[in-house]
Amino acid sequence: MNPFIENPIFLYATGLLVALLLLLGFLRFISLLRTQRTYQHSIVDLINAELPQTQCGHCSYAGCLPYARAIAQGEAINKCAPGGTQTIRRLSWLLNEQREPLDPAHGSLSPATVAVIREEECIGCTKCIQACPVDAISGATKLMHTVIAAECTGCDLCVDPCPVDCIDMIEVQQPPRQWPSPGPNELVPC
Amino acid sequence: MAISWAKRACPVLGFGKRGVKLGAIKPPPHKLESLRSRIMPTPLPERLVLSLQQHQGDASIPCVEVGDKVLKFQAIAEANSESSLNLHAPTSGTILSVDQSLVFSDSMTPEACIVLECDGADNALKVSTTRDYRALEHEHLLQRIEEAGVCGMGGAGYPTALKLRHGISKNIDLLLINAAECEPYISCDEALLRERAKEVIQGAEIIQAACLANSCQLVIESNMNEAIDALRSEITGSSVQLKIVAPSYPAGDERQIVFAATGRETPSSGLPIDIGVVVVNAGTAAACLHAVSKGQPCISRVVTLAGSPLRTPKNFDVPIGTPISHLQTLCGMDEQSHQGTLAGGSLMGQPVLNLDLPIKKTSNCVVAMSAQEFPAQEPVLPCIRCGYCADACPAHLLPQQLLVFSKQQAVEALEDHGLFDCIECGACAYVCPSKIPLLQYYRSSKELMLLEAGVTARSSHWQQRFQYFQYRRKRVNQQRAEGKQSASDNSQQVEQEFSRDKAREEIAAAVARVKSKKSKNQAS
Fold this sequence. Notes:
The complex is a heterodimer of chains A (190) and B (524).
Chain A: H1 3-6, H2 8-50, H3 64-72, H4 84-95, E1 113-117, H5 127-131, E2 137-138, E3 146-147, E4 167-171
Antiparallel strand pairs in A: 1-4, 2-3
Helix pairs in contact in A: 2-3
Chain B: H1 32-35, E1 40-41, E2 47-51, E3 61-62, E4 69-70, E5 75-78, E6 87-88, E7 93-103, E8 110-118, H2 138-147, H3 160-169, E9 174-178, H4 188-211, E10 215-221, H5 225-235, E11 240-245, H6 254-262, E12 277-281, H7 282-294, E13 300-306, E14 314-319, H8 324-331, E15 340-343, E16 350-351, E17 365-369, H9 388-392, H10 399-408, H11 411-416, H12 427-431, H13 438-497, H14 500-523
Parallel strand pairs in B: 1-14, 9-10, 9-12, 10-11, 13-17
Antiparallel strand pairs in B: 2-8, 3-5, 4-7, 5-6, 7-8, 13-14, 15-16, 15-17
């Protein structure tokens, strides 16, 4: 046998090297697990951040987070009506997918709305309060309810539960400061 | 990236392949026409229209009512918040309306205005003058400037007192007075310096004292010879230094001027305040002097009336609120060659929708356009990637790349490529051989980005509320379940306590107590 291999120093060195490699492999394995998990976690978060968070359920999922989870699993990105073209564009940019028009089965592009309760007709049943996902309706049993317009997402989840149909969805008036200036194709000749 | 290093073959000299200076253009200045005559006082128009949004920030709140008689210098609208501004009557007269809405820019934003009918008497409110402004405390100076409603007169219209306060809080060391008026046609600051150099220098001293800056430099372009002479004769003995920079467009931009004067570079999406410099326009300095030493609020400004359709282009000392048409009539307008009007210079100016619109504190120039000087937009050709725009961009951006992303509405890519560092100077569009309206693309992209930022902020707010809603519902359900359980426990306990045996024992004990008491009473 080769006296070099029999040398105990060589044996120790080899053993140490193998142990080190095993340790490194173990660490890499753990880190892989961790990255996988955070990656899974973060892609849903990233998608969820692009969704408008109205929690309206028009996409046939129970809210924005479930829809985000479904998108991460491969669901179509064109089912969010409140987000409209903007959300679809941002999602396609994020996921590197084809930009598609909004799926008409899940609603149509419409201007932002806000719920308004016709207060004289309200019977104070609190059903709309229970339905509101963002606590934007204030009121109590047998007392009149009202919508806090600044917090209302316009999801219209409160419309169906109302037994006396006293909730209207009204278009939000855009403040004048947010009117767009003309784009390059619509320049005003001066 | 498309930033071609070959094009920057000569970085030491700073010249691109066409032999032009990088980050600058040299359009024909067209300033001499309006500088031939002196600054003219404006005869009062019949009525003045004063917008409540003279400045950047919240609109002012009117403090007069319809039919009120007001005097010159009297406050007619008050600051609503810190970023708002006081507004004063430029002459005496009667208030005709306090909420007339006018559309100023092509973003179709209506602004509320106060309409003042001038009575021609020009009766002034008595104002308190200060002989020696050098003796005043800086807080007092700031208060005077704030009360006078002075805002940046270079065009941005940021409230001056607020700017100086920010400067104090950031411990700035240098004050720059910006007199490098680089945009074609605008000559109001140059005219001001030629004729009222002393006012500007004293104003600069006041601002320096107010913002506690160690030094003050007045930056001017080297081709403004008469103004430089006037300044040299007045500047001796003052703390203000003169700094002469090479003329180019956009040398007068805040970041460019700070770099030219000090060599400090403003960080991306930062302000000159972040690197210890406050930049104030020369016209603002003069307004601060009036505010402090004469006690007069900001009621007038110098405005350039320029353009070849005017027979005598000149600079006017204009009361705020004078209609543009009134000024153009004074200059003698040739209606046949008049093709339209720009508010501002030829590169950054906005088209005026209606000639009855009034002058604001921020309007520096009104250009009447003729077909010779402003030929119609030529047909737009595709981008050929010549890279001239990248050479011309003073913010070192990549305009052709930004154009592609603007067409795609790729908001994140635009942000990564620094669209918010674009100062909208229009140099890229000026040099573009394909005549692409780059500036309009960037403006609408910026608006889109702001809109999306607003939507994101709102949706994260809703998400928070939804999460709280879920948490609350869970907690309520939990409490309800716990409550039921504890209620049933309670009832069992109560039953135990009120068992019959126990009651009998208690009754028996009570009877025994009463008997013993009776027997005690009988014994005594």
